[in-house]
Amino acid sequence: MKQSKAEKRQYQTNYFTSDERFVAPVKIDDGRELVHVYVEGYEDVAFWRAIFDHFDNEYLRFEISVPTREDLPKGKKVLMSMIPRSNDHLLLCVDSDFDYLFGDETPQAKEICDAEFMFHTYTYATENYLCYAPSLHNVCVKATKNDSKIFDFVEFMAEYSRRVYPLFLWYAYSAQIDSVSVLPLIEFKNAVRLGYLEVENNGADTLAWLERQINRKVQRLEERYPEMASCMDEFAQRLRQRGVEPETTYLFMHGHTLMDNVVMVMLNSVCDKLRKMSVAQIQSSSKEGISLKNEMSNYMNQLRSIRDVLLDNENYTACPLYNKLRADIQNYIERAIFKIKSKRGSIAPR
């Protein structure tokens, strides 16, 4: 008999929430127990796959996927609704957004930070890890096949962060007190984006332009909301306890804004110059005719999309925030393996 849409929807919901699916751990062929790891969206699967690849062991196998519910949209709210059902074999992984920074200041932040089987990025989002400044030179090398260091990404991102830090405080504070109309995301994005980057002098002119823009915006906010302005120093001190320093601001700002409106602008400018340098070097060689044409064709065929390389970037493991995430997952794994060994009789239970 054909199910009605309502019956089908109820079945899908019951199937997803059914305790039967997670009562008994599923053993796979190699003897390991299967752990379902749910992430916010399809774009997050590869990132978290790379994270859990660092924790390969003989007891657990992690399978990264997106919840298959059809009655609700995907995203952080869906994963939060799963917190009561999360366990050793059902893990949840989310972007921190501002929840790590807010700690106990908001109900959502407290729930996420206290959830035993939910892991969060500590950075604003996965994109912030992909844009980790010390890794960006390698992104350029992979995209252009040119290892010349013509731009100091670490220095630039530290200086960029110092410039946007005052406005970031306003954006984060307005989010915490749920007054986003004070500084909507679109206004923050427009203020902190890079309209251009001059590679010479490591972007000094770009930074000077950005600083003028930020200062004007902050001054207008201070004049319009003096009562909020008086809270910024205390708020900044509290964020410092969570690791937010002026030079690390970029790790905590809106992830897509950072990637699309800052880092991609930098990478496009730097990679364009690196490609031109490589082409000029080939053209100035002693090769001529077909040999020169083949050499040029060979180089061009090796080039990769900058965005694709950035999305595949895994060179963020030296980031201090990643070390916090790594420690959380490691602690979970040690507890889970202890339980498995106790169940199998490998060790005496405590």
Structure report:
- This protein has 350 residues and is α/β, with parallel strands linked by helices.
- It folds into 2 domains: 5-123 and 327-344, Rossmann fold (3-Layer(aba) Sandwich); 127-314, no CATH class.
- It has helices at 5-17, 20-23, 45-53, 76-81, 99-102, 107-114, 126-130, 136-144, 153-176, 185-192, 204-224, 226-229, 232-240, 255-283, 289-302, 306-311, 320-344; strands at 33-39, 60-65, 90-94, 118-120.
- Helix 3 links the parallel strand 1 and strand 2.
- Mean pLDDT is 90; it is low at 1-23.
Overall geometry: flat
Separation of termini? 52 Å
**How many E-type strands?**
4
Strand content: 5-15%
Query: What structural category do the secondary elements indicate?
Result: alpha/beta
**Number of continuous helical runs:** 17
Order of helices and strands: HHEHEHEHHEHHHHHHHHHHH
Number of structurally distinct domains: 2
Short structural summary:
The chain contains 17 helices and 4 strands. The chain is α/β, with parallel strands linked by helices. Strand 1, helix 3 and strand 2 form a beta-alpha-beta unit.
Blueprint of the fold:
Elements: H1 5-17, H2 20-23, E1 33-39, H3 45-53, E2 60-65, H4 76-81, E3 90-94, H5 99-102, H6 107-114, E4 118-120, H7 126-130, H8 136-144, H9 153-176, H10 185-192, H11 204-224, H12 226-229, H13 232-240, H14 255-283, H15 289-302, H16 306-311, H17 320-344
Parallel strand pairs: 1-2, 1-3, 3-4
